Amino acid sequence: MMVEHSLLSDPGETRPVVARWTITADLVLESATHLGGEVNASSMMLLRDACQGGALLPGTSVAGALRSHLADVLGGYRVEEDPRVAQLLGGSRGDEGGSQSPLVVFDSLGELPAKRMIEIRDGVQIEAARGIADEHKKFDLEVLPAGTRFPLRFDLVVPAASEEDKLVSLLVAALSGLSGEISIGARRSRGLGAARAERWQAVRYDLSSPDGWMSWILSDAETPAERGKGLNDVHTACLRELPKLALQALDDQRRRVVIEVELASKGPLLVRNAPAEPDAPDAVHLRSGGRSVLPGTSVAGVLRARAMRIARIVRSGKEDAEQRVDAIFGPRLDGIPGRNEFRACASRLRIAESVVDGSARRRPSRIRIDRFTQGVASGALFEEEVEFGGRVRLRLELRNPQDGEVGLLLLVLKDLLSGDLPIGGTSSVGRGVFEGTATLWMEAGIKICVEPDLSPDPVIDHEIQKLWNAASIGGIS
Fold first, then answer.
1. Which range of residues forms the domain containing residue 198?
2. Closest CA to 15 of 84, 88, 91, 100
């Protein structure tokens, strides 16, 4: 059966080309990132280039992230893909009649920041019922440190002059997500893979003339634009290259609630990580790129556990508390009887990894007491390196919020902001306690501030009351 492709114009099936855009930028990681490679029984390794051994960012991964972001912008989260996405990125997998993508996305080799190395993170899955580590759920993860830089290159083939404005507009909308909205790699909903592109440059070759063809052929294939220079956004870079370009504004169809939380630590904080030095203490707080961080996995774990407790109370007798929490945080299928009927899906709540600013490192010594003699247990003296004090800025984003879900998150945040919900390890000895404030940016442009001693606002109070009512026993439909 013959398949007709819109971009092929003659019997020889050659693709018409009137112009070629080359757009470059530097993608800088803002948090630790795992670009999956080899997986074995003990660890999740990074993907590496076979020749040079450096960290590899495949063009397929970047193209997939761009496709997902553009589809979200044009149609909203988790809906059928808008046909305009295929115009830029080609037919989706399984689409036999789909055309070839006019966009070429190149692989990229990472450059680690000075004096930084690939990091190892260890993690566990916490058993919700007892609050302790699940047996046989320990894993190691290789990650790139924050500050790692990837040079990006995109080539856009324009088949007809009449399509140039539309194609470049779609490309600009997709690439604009690299300003901080698109994350790459694994565990993106828990803060890994945050990145931001800078130093945008755009070069256009007019392939309707011999001079344009010669200019493109003689250009440097490795570095078509000089590295180290450029603009802060791709929109401006494209207009500077072609001022007469008519970029089309695209309506953003995404529905989301953004929560920004300012927290102050009221004591020591310990999120355990494996010590890297021989003289290091027995347990150290997690650091990435030389900075102390609060990982999104730790925050998500405590928020999920508290949300489950609240849901079991407000949904008493409904027997659907687990489903309500799973709908926000994503289902946990392993080891839960009777849960096979639920389809696996990604978390709709995205939690960024945060830097702990202004903290001091302390090394308290601890001992273990023999419960029978009440004396010190032999060989049970150990040291821990904790972060004391400091401030943390959390960013939470709930996509496609449903009735009652924002109200449930407000109830959980109330406990976190009041110091009733500790984060991290050894919370039973008073660690990980925070207090602070939160700002909610609602879909309708409503801004809700949650903080101690805030003067009541009748409008905001009414909005909060509606959210809490929706989270009550009869409010979630």
1. 19-241
2. 100
Residues 227 and 94 in one domain: yes
Which residues neighbour 198 within 8 Å (Cβ) at sequence distance 6 or greater? Answer: 25, 26, 28, 230, 232
> Is the torsion defined by CA of 357, 360, 361, 365 positive or negative?
negative
Same structural domain for residues 161 and 308? no
In single-letter form, the type of residue at position 390 comes to: G
Beta-carbon contacts of residue 341 (< 8 Å; ≥ 6 apart): none
Predicted confidence (pLDDT) per residue in 278-326, tens digit: 677 778 888 888 889 999 999 999 999 999 999 988 888 778 888 889 9
pTM for the whole structure: 0.83
DSSP E strand stretches across 149-265:
149-158, 195-206, 256-265
CATH of the domain at 271: 3.30.70
Judgement on whether residues 302 and 419 belong to the same structural domain of the protein? yes
Closest CA relative to residue 75, chosen from 156, 163, 173:
173
Give the separation between CA 434 and CA 21, rounded to whole angstroms. 50
For residues 232 and 262, state if they share a domain: no
Distance CA 209, CA 70 (A): 32
In-domain check, residue 12: no
Locate the DSSP E strands across 97-236: 103-105, 108-109, 119-127, 132-143, 149-158, 195-206
Q: CA 97, CA 464: separation in Å to the nearest integer? A: 49
Residues 183 and 302 in one domain: no
DSSP-assigned states of every residue in 331-347: ---TT-TT-TTSPP---
Q: Which of 211, 241, 271 marks a domain boundary?
A: 241
